[in-house]
Amino acid sequence: MTDGRLMLALPGIHCAGCISGVERALQAVPGVRDARVNLTLRRASVEAGPEVEAETLCAVLSKAGYEAHELDPGVLAATEVDARGRALLMRLAVAVFAMMNVMLLSVAVWSGADGVTRDMMHWISAAIAIPAVLFAGQPFYSSAFAALRAGRLNMDVPITLAISLAVGTSLYETMLSGEHAYFDAAIALCTFLLAGRYLDHRTRANARSAAQELAALEVPRALRIAGQGTETVAVADLRPGDLVRVLPGGRIPVDGRVTDGHTELDRSIMTGETLPAAAAPGDVVHAGEANLTGAITVSVEAAGRDTELARIGDLVAVAEAGRSNYTSLADAAAKLYAPGVHIVAVLAAVGWFAYTWDLRVALNVAAAVLIITCPCALGLAVPAVTTAASARLFRKGLLIKDGTALERLAEVDTVAFDKTGTLTDGAPEPLGLEDLDEDKARVALALAQASAHPLARALAKGLEAKGVTPARVTHLQEKPGFGVEGTWRGEPVRLGRVAWVGGGNAVGTTATYLRLADGPVQALKFADRVREGAEDVVEALHAQGKRVVLISGDVAPAVEAFAARLGITEVIAEARPEAKAEAVQALAEGGAKVLMVGDGMNDTAALAAAHVSISPASALEAARAASDMVLTGRSLSPVLDAMGTAVSARARIKENFTIASVYNLLAVPLAVAGLCSPLIAALAMSSSSLTVSLNALRLR
Questions:
Q1: How many CA atoms are closer than 13 Å to the CA of 171, on its beta-carbon side?
Q2: Backbone angles phi, psi at 14, to 5 degrees
Q3: What is the mean pLDDT of residues 386-396?
Q4: Contact 381, 197 (CB under 8 A)
Q5: Residue 114: exposure state from Cβ atoms within 10 A (0-12, 13-18, ≥19)
Q6: Closest CA relative to residue 218, chosen from 105, 312, 317
Q7: Catalytic residue among 72, 156, 418, 528
Q8: How far is residue 471's CA from residue 441's CA, in Å, rounded to a whole number?
Q9: Cβ-based neighbours of 683, under 8 Å, separated by 6 or more
Q10: Which of 167-171, 253-257, 389-393 has the lowest mean pLDDT?
Q11: The model's pTM
């Protein structure tokens, strides 16, 4: 940490109270100079001395009740600057200012100004419009030239041609004291189209690369054993055969095998399984897994870009690239629209030149045709609908990140769900606590409070909520990978794995086991709580004729029992990250349009591979980045709202294309006939753009 800056991911924060709680906890750590939380990105930026380790900060936040993971600031640097958005907004502001002034001057001309007065108004309009058009239209010009260099046409080619021809012919007409000038139309084109371009950019602004988020989650440093001590080194400097020390609360930085120590690992980041897994010498571990209870030594087998975590990142990058091949309705329209406009304009110019042998008249008619047909309405058709739909769904509890997400969601016929953290709340809930007698409840609470194990934490929370007070248990000691033991009334008591506490038969569900002295072993069972709205969503999807699939990394019995509870018949269990992505791709290859709903790192490749994807706000940062939409609340109900809104939005987009086409069918003959004055062009452009925008607002 050379620059004294650490970045932490905080996937669970959701309000201003979380911000102040995290900042207070971090600022209380010795050596921390400053800590600032960004709620939108769910990250904390910490300025600290070189002695402060990220693992220490994560442990402090964990004790305060906040999940935290270290991020690599260098990997994220490119995602924090939205230069393109600021540039578009600045150009839009210049275009609006210029248009307002040019329109004021044009009103005087339209009102009957003639002779010297008209010429003066035209020259002033030129002085305002030409610099503004040159500056504000840069996004269209660069895109058009890039398309032409590649030997193809896009929507920006007719836009650039229309603006150029309008300004050129207007300047020529002004120099000859002509009656008509299209400076107002040129700057209006820029304004309307920049508004559409900026709205489109806004819908994409939250979409950051999931592959970068995954890379940022890789632990950048490790404790390498050297001689009798340890040294902090970059993970990139580790080689197979090196030994690294992983402390409780830290993430494993490499793929390898445990050579010393016992612990329990949180493998949900890789497998989605809820129950922590015991790790002992000889067991395989992977980068990204969290070490929960004991210090271990790991022999390095793969580090850096060779780890399984890095391979998941590569899977996500490939899946994201495949999704980018989707052709939106606007792009499909542009393929037909651009050549059609050029053909009409060229034919009009050739026809008028053949009729009058006057190049000036022919160019004026061509300019009028291009201005009338310039795709203001088409440019607003999709962004206006997407913005209206986004506002509606945001109020319902869903944030849209990608501009084509609604179009893709309207095509969905298959919905694939992850289990843990998606259809469930992702936290174990103790069952049957009311059946415990007072002594067992008090001893269980005392033992659970002494452990960092997720089941122990859930048990303690449940018992505390029932008003249980802990017993006076002494000599408390946690045995990593096994459980907690102590002494109560002179007798040994234990809470942990069934074989360790004293034998007996394990129950067929998630549980921890309690034994007092030589008494019988008591199983304390846990269950995942179903997420609010999950049962209603699955039932409604079945009623709509949608295919519903449950894809989980959890063990088969737990997945099948949960699926039966929700009425899901298609189940894929014990699926690793690459298997989830392959399952989604197999569905797609079978002709299905898949909506994937997931929350973990093990879901990121599947989320990116799906036709469209949704993740909860509580999801890991990388999963949210891979998704097209994010649920802002705890309920899954907005998924149904989104699917209904998507169908309506697609219908509105098609209606807008119809409006734009009808407008062109009515206006183009006027332009070709030479009857389109600058006033008619301005009114036609404005009315079509306004109609499209008002039609889009019906979604709200």
A1: 13
A2: -150, 0
A3: 78
A4: no
A5: exposed
A6: 312
A7: 418
A8: 9
A9: none
A10: 389-393
A11: 0.62
Residue 616, domain CATH? 3.40.50.1000
Here the tokens at position 556 are: 């088969």
How far from 302 is each of 233, 241, 288, 543, 567, CA to CA, in Å? 15, 9, 13, 48, 42
The beta strands (E) that lie in 471-593 are given as 474-479, 483-488, 491-496, 511-516, 522-530, 547-551, 570-572
554: left (phi over 0), alpha (psi -120 to 50) or beta: beta
Q: The tokens of 151 are what? A: 């030997």
535 and 636 together in one domain? yes
In one-letter notation, the amino acid at residue 85 is G
DSSP-assigned letter for residue 251: B
User: Mean pLDDT, the chain, as a whole number?
Assistant: 80
Query: Residues 573, 634: one domain?
Result: yes
Alpha carbons 696 and 618: distance in angstroms, whole number: 31
Assess whether 13 and 35 both reside in one domain: yes
Residue 78's pLDDT band (boundaries 50, 70, 90)?
very low
pLDDT digits (tens, 9 = 90+) for 229-244: 888 888 878 889 899 9
Name the domain boundary from 71, 89, 111: 71
For residue 266, give its domain range: 219-306
H-type alpha helices, 52-114: 54-63, 73-76, 83-110
Any catalytic annotation for residue 114?
no
Q: Which of 364, 426, 32, 311 is nearest to 165 (CA)?
A: 364
